[in-house]
Amino acid sequence: MKASTNNVVRRSAPQITTRRVVPQSTLRGLAGVAVVLLAAGLIFDQSAHADQPTPAPNQVSFVNEVMAVLGKAGCNAGVCHGNASGKGGLKLSLRGYNPRADLEAITRDQLGRRVNLATADASLFLQKPAGMVEHGGGQRFGVDSDFYRVIHQWLQQGAKGDFDRAPRLEKIDVSPELSILAKPGLKQQLVVRAHFAGGLIRDVTDQAIYELINQGIVDVDGRGLVIAKEVGEAPVLIRFLGQKALSRITVIQARPDFAWSNPSAHNFIDTHVFAKLKAVQVLPSELSSDTEFLRRVSFDTVGLPPTPAEVRAFLVDKRPDKRSRKIAELLERPEFADVWALYWLDLLRADETPGVLYPKGVWALSRWLRKSVEDNMPYDQFVRRFLTARGSLLANPPAALSHVFRQPNEKAEAIAQIFLGTRLECAQCHDHPFDRWTQSDYNSLSTFFYQVGRKDGQDYYAEGQVYLEPEKNKQVHLRFLDGSAVQWPPADRLASEKGDGVRDRRIALADWMLGPAKQWTARALVNRVWGKLLGRGIVEPVDDFRFSNPPVNEPLLDALADDFIAHGYDFKRLVGTILLSRTYQASSRPNGTNGTDQTYFSRAMLRRLSAEQLLDGLSQATGIEEEFRAVPAGFRAAQVPTNHTGSYFLKTFGRPPRKSVCSCERSQTPTLPQTLHLMNGTTMMKRLRAEGGTLDRLLKAKLDDNRLIEEFYLHALSRPPQPAELAHARGYLTEADDRAQAAEDLFWALLNSRRFLFNH
Amino acid sequence: MRVCPWSAVVLAILPSLGWTAPPEIRSTVPAGLQRGVETQLTLYGPGFGPGMELVVPFAAAIKVTSVSSEVATFAVKPANHVPVGIFPIRVRTADGVSNMLLLAVHDLPRVVEVEPNDRPYEAQRIAWPCMITGALGGRGAPHPSKDVDTYKFTVKAGQRLTFVSETRRVGLAPDLALRLRDPKGRELAFCDDVPGLGVEPRLDYTFKEAGDYTVEVHFSHFSYSGRNHNYLLKIGAFNYARSVFPLGGKRGENVNVTVTDRDEKPSTLQTRVTADPRAEQWLLPLDDFPGSLPWRMAVGDLPEVMEDADRTGPQVIEWPAIVNGRIAKPDEMDRYRLRVKPGQQIRISADAFYHGSALDGVLRVYDPAGKMLAANDNRNGRMNPDPLVDFIVPDGVNEVSVNLEDGFGRGGADYPYRMTIEPGGPDFELFTGTERPRTGWPENDAVNLPLGEPVKLAVRVVRRGYQGAILLKALNVPSGVTIPPGIIPEGEASAELTFTANAQAPASLFEIGLVGVAQVDGKTVTRQVVRHIHIAEPSMTNMRWDWRLTRFICAKVEGVR
Questions:
Q1: How close, in Å, is residue A336 to chain B by CA atoms?
Q2: How confident is the model at residue B311 (pLDDT cuts 50, 70, 90)?
């Protein structure tokens, strides 16, 4: 199956068209024309089959017309009657996913008071949205509108359903699918066609619903006219009768004198990034300086800034490949495993709360994760271990997944979000409003976990063991998210004399995720890694791969995934490849073209250091370790695996509580307590003044001002001071009555500066 | 002063005599002694006093060094011939005999931990082989949850060492983890729990290069429970037994036991199963495997059958019998066939866990049509993960299949089992003492008998389908002691036995047994009264440090203070 642009492998890539199709006309007129022409066998090269359902002439279709009005007028939206509890006593299915229930509600509920079949005009169903009587939702359409006429005629015709007769809508498409608008203010008319079974195609541009995914880049009116406002990516989601299509609009600031600067590509990543930058006429920033690179790559790999000695050594190193050597060295440091073990602990919601994993379970999982990163376990094995884990949480820590996510549907949601980057939870109650997932898809994925049971383990402090319930070993029909299916277990496994494990349905899921869907699985992981290192995913949020949330650079994402798979799912190699790219190593300083770019990776994004990076960075800079609850001395913040660390600092700076698998749980939002705590909280003040700390040590060394200032800069900002900075600081020290106090002030100021707090 | 529960009963009966409670041992330091070497053994607990004696079940020279009301020190030198193992010890004063604690006897030089030894540069240098007696936390050490005891040792290239904790097995609280580091501080190996050893860690490592290495000892997840944080860590170039097969034998008969060592090499020990009619288990000495303690073996009274590992198809078993088998490979399922009659009550249990097997068995029974008749995973939750099924053969069924597998699809040499197939039906179990002690300190299982005063002991029954009366009797009652029979009436849950000792009762400690006899479906059924005690603290897990006593230590109490 061919992967599509939006990560749903079951559909083929849509054709891209740029020409307009059919001019607009009224809804009824076009339908009538289409019917006549179909009957005449004219236009559209598909023939209407004699056995395909066709509407009676002039009969308003409830399924295809009335429901379309309800959608377009917003009646069945989540804020109105599509709400879980309805509105004003009328409950419609959200966005019309259940027309039969909707017909029942409109015509039968409350003794049918909403419809007046004798006098259609008197129907509340008509009067309310037309504003003729009081309506909480206001006037949705006028009495002289097509919508009114459709509803009116339907009521006059008896308000019947036509579920068995109405042509079935198979899909909708939009033209153009991709477009680039050269500057804000330009317009693009979208055209939407609905494809019905039997070959009927209708222009539904005026009836489709248009939703903006990224607000502020473009506006779109109810007739599909897009107006560019700002530079950026603006996917427009189009809905019609439960089907969806996507038009991807890119607004650029065209530059007539744009000339590509032709920077050298370090690897294939840069090739794809540059291709996009050229298309949007943005130049990449220059390469970062050595100190910028060193600090950034140190934090991103080992969670720590470089020491002054490391900075000095790097600066005097004249080898042309020193950056790649440094990357290779950092990837082999034990702290690299700490960083990624912590990443996965957060993602897997490793909660030490009694009843979840207990501290012993979290430690066991932490050690396993750390070892798997250290040993560079191939990612496909990593995924398979989690998907199919059984047994004691302590002996087989990947079994933790079944302890954190207990119910089959919870496991399904977690697996989808963690390993496929797909958020399925909306589809639990109804078809996903922003993606293609149906409730059936949701339930199908859940069935892979129905066999899994939990029981107490022998060790009281590490709850639980995961096993397979043998009563559920029957052969069943399992359907994957791409629509493919399998009978499981296969006959040979069903008849096998081996134990339950060979009939484990999760094996089938793992085989699919690492087989037919391996591109999907790989894209999800490479996107996470990219997001962690670059500050933004190619799909953002990184765990929200969605039809209506396409990648900003799909060829880049595909290339990364292909490379990852081709090299045996080598995780360290993936990280190294990204770090080696010019894109990663670009400066954060903007040029004349990319000052507002937060999307195309033309420059490094400013990222506030994470809670652990900040605390460990502070500890290293000041020479004073942090003490944590229930871990020995010497542990860094990135090494503490439990979520109840007892650390005010970590909590204040956004360490996740591990109640959600969402990547958004780790908060980078700046807050006032953060600022105040850094300025004069205990974390900073006890470190600055501590005996034996960096400040104390440097003062006792009786360095001259220049040398002292240089040491401060190297410890705090991982670089020497610039001449102006040196002069300014020296002046401050010289003029101070108390040199020691002035030195403390200076060091404090550097540690509170944005240059320290941000990864840049 | 803390008073243990059943002693409160005694106090309630004997207020006029002013008899004070018997002594109580709460901890010992060290928890292990080297045989042939005199060691100062310090005991802590209330109720000590002049004339106190240390009671040990092995030959030893014992001298009192000092005694106060709560601390007593003895110089103890176990005889050279004392077998390596774990032994119960008690103390005795004029007020009676104490509870039981465990003491290890080994043949290794003892190394006493010296703090501070938390950071690599502070590591305590040791020579191996040795038995380290240490403690997490304590004087000069960080808080127990943060304490990491580090020991440095030297090896030559190619040397292989075993590091094994004998902590929980001696009734100490810590749930330990071990970590090996190379001279540069890089982690080489880590171990938390080893299947078959409960929560004890064991590391087996071959050092490629010569040099100084370190081993770290700390609480498994840097949090702890319990009041004592002492541990024993054995280090040496030891072989050890990974598993034994079979896991037991028939009472009084010879059995050939295959011991699988650390490299999965088998060797055979010829030995004899205990003939003691009341023993539920016996210890298999493993002298050739110094890294292991004697193996806890099962004893049965039914015919023993060995699994036919070469069979194709289910093995037919003549029952009642005990089948000794092994889940030899991952995802293996052992299948047996039994000839049965409709209406028969059958009980099948697969014991593994408490005999050191890594197996977590799942039992299922099917009729010839494939319908499941019975299934079980854990017979008693955390208390016992081994399966047990009790079922009645339905009409029309003359044969059943019995399937046993590991619940998590594992298998190998470490997965032996003993499957008992016997007639089922109504039955009962008898207990004394508290099922799950709630007090902070070990319960006193001894029966102290002040002269002339009756002491009552409650016996409880857990009825498994049998509701009739049960006659309670004492066995091996010496002269000078009377224990009249008692009856647990029909439908009732308990009864009391009354112990009375006079001046003719033995001066030394003596053991008695208690049994319950009932007529069940026309047959005489005798069951031992068992006492379940936690040697360590109740906040620990319920794992194998949960002892079952079938003999009761009694002491005449003559001194009244």
A1: 14
A2: confident
CATH architecture of B304-425: Sandwich (2.60)
For residues B406 and A205, what is the distance between their CA atoms, to the nearest angstrom? 62
Cβ separation B375–A631 shorter than 8 A = no
Nearest chain A alpha carbon to B189: A371
Determine the 3-state secondary structure of B420 from DSSP: strand
How many other β-carbons are positioned within 10 Å of the β-carbon of residue A112?
13
Higher per-residue pLDDT: B513 or A433: B513
Domain B428-557 has CATH 3.90.210: no
Tell the residue number behind the tokens 């079974």, with chain if given: A197
Let me know how long chain B is: 561
Residue B526 CA to residue B542 CA, distance in Å, equals 27
Which fold would CATH assign to domain B110-236? Jelly Rolls (2.60.120)
Tokens 């020296």 belong to A730
Fold category of A611-759 in CATH: serine acetyltransferase, domain 1 (1.10.3130)
Q: What ipTM describes this predicted complex?
A: 0.84
Taking the C-alpha atoms of residue A49 and residue A44, their distance in angstroms, rounded to an integer, is 13
Q: Which pTM value belongs to this model? A: 0.86
> What's the pLDDT tens digit per position in A211-230?
998 889 999 999 999 999 99
What B183-189 contacts at long range (C-beta under 8 Å, 24+ apart), as own/partner pairs, is B183/B211, B183/B212, B183/B213, B185/B120, B185/B214, B186/A334, B187/A334, B188/B213
Tens-digit pLDDT profile for residues A559-616: 999 999 999 999 999 999 999 999 999 999 999 899 989 999 999 999 999 999 999 9
Are B455 and B10 in contact by the 8 Å Cβ rule? The answer is yes
Q: Does domain A1-52+167-254 have CATH number 2.60.40.1080?
A: yes
What is the full DSSP assignment across B349-364? EEE-GGGT----EEEE
Beta-carbon contacts below 8 Å between A and B: 108
Contact A632 B222 (CB under 8 A): yes
**For B348-360, what is the mean pLDDT?**
91
Question: Where in chain B are the domains?
Answer: 110-236, 242-300, 304-425, 428-557
Encoded tokens for B243: 């598993």
3-class secondary structure per residue, A34-88: HHHHHHCCCCCCCCCCCCCCCCCCCCCCHHHHHHHHHHHCCCCCCCCCCCCCCEC
* B304-425 and B428-557 share one fold: no
Q: Where are the domains of chain A?
A: 1-52+167-254, 55-156, 378-516, 611-759
pLDDT (tens digit per residue) in B104-117: 999 999 999 999 99
Q: Residue A456: its chain B contacts at CB < 8 A?
A: 378, 381-382
Half-sphere exposure of A421 (CA within 13 A, CB side): 31
